[in-house]
Every structure is written in C-alpha cells, then in structure tokens.
Amino acid sequence: MALQSPRLPKPPTSRATLDLDSVYDHALSPLHHNVADFVRDVAPNRRDYLRWRRVIFDIENASRDVFGRRARVRPFGSIASGLATFRSDLDLVVCDVIGVTSGGYTPAQRARAVQALYRLAKRLVQRRDVVIETMQVIPMARVPILKIVTQDAISLDLSVHNAAGPLAAEFIRKKLKEYPTARPVCLVIKTFLKELGLNEVASGGLGGYALANMVLAQCLEDKGTPAEEDYGEALLNFLELFGTRFDYVRQGVCLRRDGILPKKQIEEEARKWIFNPAWEGRTDRKKRLLVEDPLTGLNISGASSRYGEIRGHFSRAYGELKRETEKGENVNPLNVLFDVAEVIRRPEVPNRPHRIHTARRRRLERTGETVMRLRAPHAMGCSAVRLC
C-alpha cells in the first residue's frame, strides 16, 4: 500500500481569510483596517506550507522506521486550527503508537511516551532527513515532547499520541468560521504575548489553545454589537475584558455555557461529567486562571502561573491602544503593542539543495504519491543535540 502524504490544511487565500468586501467598509474603524492589514501580512504563504509539509513527511518516515508502518504524523495547534503565522511553530503528534486517552497520561503511558521520543530522536539524527540545529526531550511536561529546531529555522514540538491535540485544533477551526473577528484578534494577541515572552506555557505564559477559548468567549459577549464585525472594536473589547473586568480569581472561561461564568459553578458542573478535573486537589487553584477545555472539561490554563502579569499587560495595552486610536493621526496604533514593521518582516530562509533518488521518484510516480521526499545532503549534520 502506498504511503500517504501527511496533510496540512490548505493555505488560506486572501478572500478565504478575510471578507474583503467588509474588511474595507468605510463604516468600520481605522483600527479594523490596521488589524486586517496585519493579518494579511503575517499569514503563511504557500512556500511556508511547503517547508512545513517537507518536515512533516520526513518525520513521518522516521516514525515508521521506529514504530512500524502504522505510525502516522498529524499536525495540530495553530497550523491545523487556522491560527498560524509564518513564524509559527509546528505542533506534531505521532499517532497509533501507544494508547493514550484525551484526558492525559498514566505514569506507565508517560514512561512509554518518553522512551518512544528518545528512540525517535535517535533515528532522526541517524537519517539526516531533517537538518537539525538543536533537539531536546522534555519528559516532565504535561505532555512529554521532543523539541526540535531545524537549520531552516523551523521550530517544532513533537508528542506521541496526544489524542486531544488534533481534536482541539478541529474544534477551534470550526469556531473561527462562526466568529469572523476571532482569528484577527487571536493573531494580534498571540504576537503581543510572544513579543513579551509570555506565550509559552512551560514558563507560566498563556498557551494558544487557552487564548483561543478566551477570544471566543469575548466573541460571545460581542454578539449583536458593532464589535461582532469590527476587528478593531473586538480587539479593544478583548483587552478591556481580560485586562480590567474579568476577575480570574472568581471567574473562569467556559465555552460550553455563556463564555464567562463563576469559577465555582464551572468546577461543580465539571465534576458531574469528568472524574478528575485538572484543578482537583490543587490548594492554589483559586488563584489560577481557569479556562475549561470544552472537549474534556479539564483546565487548560492551570500552568499559566504568570496570568496576573499578563492581565497587567492587557490592561496597559487597552489604555494605550484606545488613546492612540482616539488621536486620529495617520499612524498604525498597533505599534503600541509591538513593532509592526519588525514583526511582519520575513526572515531570509536559505535555499538548501535537496535531492531525491531516481528509483524512489519513479516508484512514487507509479503509485500516484506526491513526490515530497526531499533529502538533505549527507554533509549537513546535526550541529547540536541535547537529549535530557
């Protein structure tokens, strides 16, 4: 049976990404147009998708060497949900390797997952399909991952049968179609947090899935208002809600209900349909941000220990952005959040030579498989590998 090329969502066209007829409606705020331009400038192009696809394909081949032909590599996270920029990291999961429920890992499953990641890391170094700059196994993360940075400046996190990831990405992808302002607001806030160094859950920051749920909760509040279609108004409303009005000690985010609910109510309802909520047994849970996973009922923001700091940045950004937009000057108000020109500047990606064996090319063409097996020269090895 021919191998199937790993699938990525099709790169969005400008009209699929934004409704151009409404984006440039003069009745919308000037900030709306600034946000629309920013979203267009940071969107991945077809070259980005091709680079990602090559990496996924090579990692899938290495996975099948280690785990057998049943192994499949699937993207999730921002790449699969539609919230990617050209600077986005790749989130990948190797499926059909070990049985793991969407609720998390048992100790035995965690041990098998970590062992599987070490085996895969070793095989990737041996094959040299992916030209690796750095590599690190992180065994004690909530989901054990293999972090890789390639010499082509692609950063990726690889996990083993994290079943919740692809399901969550599909959920967000569907929700983004329902709420036109959600994707632009998400991309601006993600960039804002990344520039502050507050986008990594491992360091107490706010992860992309939790942020997407928060933005969707704000969209529920904006129903029937001008902010339902105006990106600028929606952005200001998000910063105001989560920077000033949202009390994360007493309130939580719950998309299953009305978006924002008392934390106590969310916890009580969750205990009725899941056995072990993520906040169960935590003495400090009342001080933690609570964003409920609408698919599992777990708290997906429990590790965001720096949310108090993040909330302060949201509050400051709301005040500065509102003042800047009220000036009416011919400047981009998004510059109060980050340096727009620097963020949209695409880094130079080296055009590394690739080759494909003629025999394999002919075999792939006979089976109808897309020729994507692009091997790096053997001289290009791994300059730094750290397995810890």
TrEMBL record:
CDD domains: NT_PAP_TUTase. Residues 32-170 form the Poly(A) RNA polymerase mitochondrial-like central palm domain. Keywords: Magnesium, Metal-binding. Pfam families: MTPAP-like_central, PAP_assoc. GO terms for biological process: polyadenylation-dependent ncRNA catabolic process; RNA 3'-end processing. Residues 231-295 form the PAP-associated domain. PANTHER family: INACTIVE NON-CANONICAL POLY(A) RNA POLYMERASE PROTEIN TRF4-2-RELATED, POLY(A) RNA POLYMERASE. This is Polynucleotide adenylyltransferase. It comes from Ostreobium quekettii.
